[in-house]
Amino acid sequence: MNEVEDTLTLLHTNDIHSHFENMGAIAAIVADRKQQCGEDQLLVLDIGDHMDRMSIETEGSSGGANIDIINMTGYDAITIGNNEGLTYTPELLNQAYAGISCPIICSNVEEIESGVPPVWMETHRIIHKGTWKIGLIGATAQYSDYYELLGWNVSDPISSLAPWVAKLRGEVDLLVVLSHLGLPTDQKLAEQLPEIDVILGGHSHHVLDRPLWIGTTVLGAAGKFGQYIGEMVWKKDTQGARAHLLDGGLIPITENMERDVSIENAIVLHRQRAEERMNRTVAMLEAPIEINYETESPFGNLLAQAVRQFTGAELSIVNAGQLLADLPAGEVTEGLLHRLCPSPVNPCVTLLQGKNIKLALEQSLLPEFTHKTIMGFGFRGKVLGCLCVDGIDISYDLSRPAYDRITHIQLGDQPLEVEKEYSVGCLDMFTFGIGYMSLSESNEVKYILPEFIRDLLRMQLQTPGAALASAEKRWFMV
């Protein structure tokens, strides 16, 4: 065995989130390493959340643009993240992944009905690269409540991976976990299953400039959005012991880097096709519908109306920051709704006491909440924004102290009672304690999938009188 056959270069990406502007540079690096190392000494992996429906290319192709770029780049295997698993129905994923040319590895997902993984998913794979035998297993984050609604059972990752670690350890030269679980879980995984050689991580968008050792296991991660590509070089042990890590780190992706021309051309074509597909008219407006992040506004009210009507709740509460700009007069297309409401956020029904509702509404009168910058949990806006409601009227006095400015809340013909529980049409991100914390203090939540809030806006815009109703006030200054 010569020196070249002894080594294996491993390139990895994670949480690209459809940042197509970086994919051409990533592909160029992959092509360069193939030329340097030889295809038999190079392994290219993605750790999930390659897709993000905020992107017009992804949304307009139902993920097909991402699959095309994955194929053209030459990935050897990928796993799925929550952005693939939770923002698309199983039927749409079946269609998207039908065209993929590499295996999709995930060891903790099964269909509830069949008891086996989806047809396009593998629990494990042994890949041969030159003289190397590489064992691949994977896991994705366990959002059980959501996945069950889509017909999947996503089990505990460590208990799901343990049998495959035991089975593959003696059969391979390098045992790799594709982990869309987040750094804390990766650390536990390394501690509890030390037979793993390397855990390539994602989900928590952590950046590991150099490989992190946890016992005898190496952790790697490349941040988010394709800002980096991770690289490790491994050497086989000639005595039959576990492989050795020779070097590892991150390659920054910069604007002036060389880009793969074929990838760049494919991206342009996918964008053009997506824009054409999403040019369908869904409504016509005689006048614009405005959004304001500091105070009640018609576009925010329209979203609140949409959520209340769709969920059938007694009242609804949404944040204005979900909407990125005014809805202009004239033709409203699918593409326009996508641009103005890009977040893959789902509606839900939550049971909340009146006091928790009132607290959130009090906070909505404070600039530290309306101007708050938040990230994650599906939110793709800029600031949290004020709360917009439907089904209740709120009287308030700004001359009073903070947290005591609301003088009355009326629901129908009754005042809101602080100890009484109400069904509230809401947004799933609130139930995770994001933004207005009191909206997460519920004993029961019913998530509704697969509709996003922009789907609800489309339905509401097609409802007679909805646009006029959105101009009616819910907040009254006294």
What does this entry show, briefly?
The protein has 478 residues and is α/β, with parallel strands linked by helices. The chain has 17 helices and 26 strands. The strands form 7 sheets. The protein has a 6-stranded mixed β-sheet. Strands 3-2-1-14-15 form a 5-stranded mixed β-sheet.
Folded structure, characterized:
- With about 475 residues, the chain is of the alpha/beta class.
- It has 17 helices and 26 strands.
- β22 and β23 form a beta hairpin.
- It starts with a helix and ends with a strand.
Question: In order across it, which strands form the biggest sheet?
Answer: 7-8-10-11-13-12
SS summary, helix count: 17
Low-confidence stretches: none
The biggest sheet amounts to:
6 strands, mixed
Form type: elongated
What's the count of strands?
26
The percent of residues in helical segments reads 25-40%
Ends distance? 84 Å
Structural class: alpha/beta
- Residue-averaged pLDDT: 96
CA radius of gyration: 25 Å
Give the DSSP E fraction (strand runs of 2 or more residues): 25-35%
